[in-house]
Write a structure and sequence with these properties.
Structural class of chain A: mainly beta
Largest sheet of chain B: 8 strands, mixed
Number of strands of chain A: 8
Oligomer: heterodimer
Radius of gyration of chain B: 16 Å
Mean pLDDT of chain B: 95
Largest sheet of chain A: 4 strands, antiparallel
Shape of chain B: globular
Shape of chain A: elongated
Structural class of chain B: alpha/beta
Order of helices and strands of chain A: EEEEEEEE
Strand order of the largest sheet of chain A: 1-8-6-3
Mean pLDDT of chain A: 96
Radius of gyration of chain A: 12 Å
Distance between the termini of chain B: 13 Å
Strand content of chain B: 25-35%
Distance between the termini of chain A: 8 Å
Low-confidence stretches of chain A: none
Chain lengths: 79, 212
């Protein structure tokens, strides 16, 4: 089974973020509750948390790239 | 929002960062927010994706003067912190109020605007540029981090700051002149009174119930 890591709603008027820093890479095991990526909007760096235990299958949006709110930026597969 | 207030005094940026990390865990544990107030020895900090091009002086030169340059996990570009600049780190449980980063940032600005009013300084926002301004000059910078909807980092308000350090950078990546409360008032401002009024402004804006 796979899960999407999506950019969550961060506030009215925030329609995109910039991916700053992935804390893990493809193939890494992820625990439920791990902060896996930092994204920036306005003057805020927001840590996106993975809500599922699994393995990071694929990063879809790389550091330095922009992503829209709701966009899938990575895929997690369950172990 | 229930909140403890902690005055860290004069503390190295890196040490204060470790304190923040521990307090984030405390907030996760008991859901009560904390407001940290402090002052840092001279240091330049850079946001997570800040561009080194905004240093106007080779940053390596700062180490000979004993001034660190630290990249950290907050939003924004490069800025300076030093004696006379009041730092507020609201480690706030945003799940307790509103999960909206824009609203939170605007509230942080409002705290500073409200505080400055007490001292007869008329401050404002500039649309599209987070921070607090006195006409065209910037008096306070804001940059935050958020983990599990708990905020950290925060505000740097120039009270009696030596503004000459800002000439070594493009503060926040902008062609901006920095100012301070001392510059706007024409004299040194009582730091203790500013601290008290800052806390009052936080209590008012965030409807804090102080626990200590």
């Amino acid at each position: 089974m796979t899960y999407k890591i999506e950019v969550p709603f961060l506030g009215d008027g925030i329609d995109k973020v910039r991916v700053c820093s992935w804390h893990c890479k493809s193939g890494d095991d992820i625990a439920k509750g791990d902060d896996i990526v930092e994204v920036e909007a306005d003057k805020a760096v927001f840590n996106i948390t993975c809500e599922h235990k699994g393995r990071l299958k694929e990063i879809l949006t790389r550091e330095g790239q922009d992503a829209a709110i709701g966009q899938t930026i990575a895929i997690i597969e369950s172990l | 929002m229930k909140c403890h207030i902690k005055d860290l005094g004069l503390i190295d940026f890196s040490e204060a960062y470790q304190v923040q990390k521990q307090i984030i865990q405390d907030v996760l544990h008991d859901a009560n927010s904390r407001l940290l107030i402090c002052e840092h020895p001279a240091v330049f900090t850079m946001g997570r994706i800040a561009d080194e091009k905004f240093f106007l002086v080779d940053p390596k030169a700062f180490s000979t003067k004993g001034i660190d340059v630290i990249r950290t996990d907050r939003g924004g570009e490069v800025t300076f912190h030093g004696p006379g600049q009041m730092i507020a780190y609201p480690i706030f449980n945003l799940s307790d109020s509103t999960k909206d980063l824009k609203i939170f940032l605007r509230k942080l600005e409002e705290v500073v605007i409200d505080l400055l009013k007490y001292f007869g300084i008329v401050a404002n926002r500039q649309n599209g540029y987070t921070g607090v301004w006195v006409k065209e000059k910037k008096i306070a910078s804001v940059g935050i981090g958020v983990k599990k909807w708990i905020s950290y980092h925060g505000i740097g308000l120039n009270v009696n700051t030596d503004l000459s350090f800002f000439s070594m950078i493009k503060p926040c990546g902008l062609n901006v002149t920095m100012t301070s409360m001392a510059q706007e008032r024409g004299h040194i401002v009582d730091y203790t009174t500013v601290k008290a009024k800052l806390i009052e402004a936080f209590i008012k804006e965030f409807k804090l119930e102080i626990l200590n």
